[in-house]
Amino acid sequence: MNNINIKITTPFWLNYFKLIKNEMLPYQWAVLNDTADIVIEKERDAAYIPSQKSHAIENFKIAAGLKTGHHYGMVFQDSDVYKWLEAAAYCLKRFPDKEVQKITDDLINLIGKAQESNGYLNTYFTIEAPTRKFKRLYQSHELYCAGHFIEAAVAYYEAVNNKHALNIACKLADHLCHTFGNAPNQIHDYDGHEEIEIGLLRLYKITKNKNYLNLAHFFLYERGKDPEFFHKQVSADPDKSVLIEGMDNFKASYYQNHKPILEQTTAEGHAVRVTYMCTAMAMLANEADDTAILEAAKKLWQNITQKRMYITGGIGSTVIGEAFTTDYDLPNDSMYCETCASIGLIFFAGNMLKNDINSHYSNIMEKALYNTVIGGMALDGKHFFYVNPLEVNPAICHTNPSKSHVKTTRPAWFGCACCPPNIARLIASLDSYIYTIKNNIIYCNLYLANCCTLSVNGKNIAFTEETNYPWDGNINFTINTARQFGLGLRIPDWCESFTLKLNDKNLLYNIKNGFIIIDRNWSVNDQIELILSMPVQIYTSHPSIIADSGKLAIQRGPLMYCLEGVDNGSNLHLLYLSKNAIFTEQQKNSALGNIITLETTAQKLCSDFNWHNHLYYNARHIKNKFIPQKIQLIPYYTWGNRGENEMRLWLNEYNS
Questions:
Q1: 0.85 exceeded by the pTM?
Q2: Sign of the dihedral through C-alpha 39, 42, 43, 45
Q3: Which residue is catalytic, options 170, 278, 418, 562?
């Protein structure tokens, strides 16, 4: 989409933009420079995870020859810096700031100095292992880091017209084009973690250098042709030391390397890798009119969203490999649901919409955004979840080694810190996901107040949108340009009724692929009023989801709701809710912000049996009873901001 100007005005998201600018970016910059007084936690119990410091900026200084020392951190530590730079670029576009731009310009100069003369760029291999470049692609993340820098460079060029970063990116991409390909003297394969494909396709879009498009095509289509490729590389590497512990026993499917991508129909392996691969597939389909790869992407989308996704938009069912497992295996208390995976799902959805206008992509984008993604950061912008559970019991999380990844409150930083800057760069670029333009129609994917001027078939269209979404469903558009075009209004999948008016008169409509298309010759000051009903809804799950059998989940608008112990006491697992429960909505301005809470009466399971010294007992001799208890639910994204306590999203169903 060629957006000329989109100014988001809704208070909900303005708060996040200001939080990123004023808190997140300065805080993360301090962490990357090792000047923040914080405790860095391991995302799970594993001795090999480095957690003493970030050292990310120091790594660049050493690689540039400005300092001496050794590389510290993960081999992909550079990507933390690149994602931070990309987020800063989007912020500079929205909030020009000379001091911030001085920091980012200096950072780009430092990155340029760390780049080798042939274009190669990676601090770990420059400092520690110059003879091992591209020799362990399943572990090395060299192309992964390259992709993130290229993305940051493109964003920075588009934000402030700085060509230095873009020149570094082109030099790096040219080196990769020389190194990888089908020629006899080239490496015939790809990175273990998809990302370079996205960077190359973004770089192609602004440079029109077809070498970048062709290399992205090569990386995608070469994947899976030889499932043994990574093992062959390890055998050929004279240095047998590993780059990342714990990856030696993963199957080819972990890297989406088990089949050529056109033959993959189920989401397998590491969830972030899958969504980044699918994002690139959707991008290539759009840039090269590749219908085969688009159909393959659709199959993977359907498998993820119809059989392997949590109701919050989280994906990844197991801590082992941060991966998918099988259809309907969606445990709530041991899942992974990595923040980056939901971010990747949004990338995937946004790029599918450029090929295939269907509200299903927008609905999932909205679900992941309003629940898992913003839930991945604390309300202070300085604490983060790597993993987003749907059920937490602090005592179990602290003592059960298999749940060490399930944090009860958000840590300040991680040894593997991919998620915090990823959240920043996604939210800071939110304007690029609001609309999709196709065939003279502007489709509204996300509802949030904004003033915009968009280019449709080379002509400017200006309008404003006013709404207090996600708290209510009243959405009003004012057209500021007299011109013929279509406006596509999404009807969310959670909305069961709505009203639509044009200039205060009811409007006849048809819904196609989840959108109402209003195509007319617009006049200045034309008014569109869309009112989406937003009652509290109670959901159940597919019968094959064992973890949710006999349970209910609460949603209002795009927001999932949950219980916390601080509001409802302990032993949340003993609470039962009727599917006919009636809720009271309460607008509250509290420590959780200006939110709507939900109140209702549940039933708490109690027993008159003295369980002292008994772990199990004959059920015929025990009389259980239910006692009414008033409960309060809060938006899922706000949980964990008031200290450590129990949390539960799915509630037992009460059948009276």
A1: yes
A2: negative
A3: 418
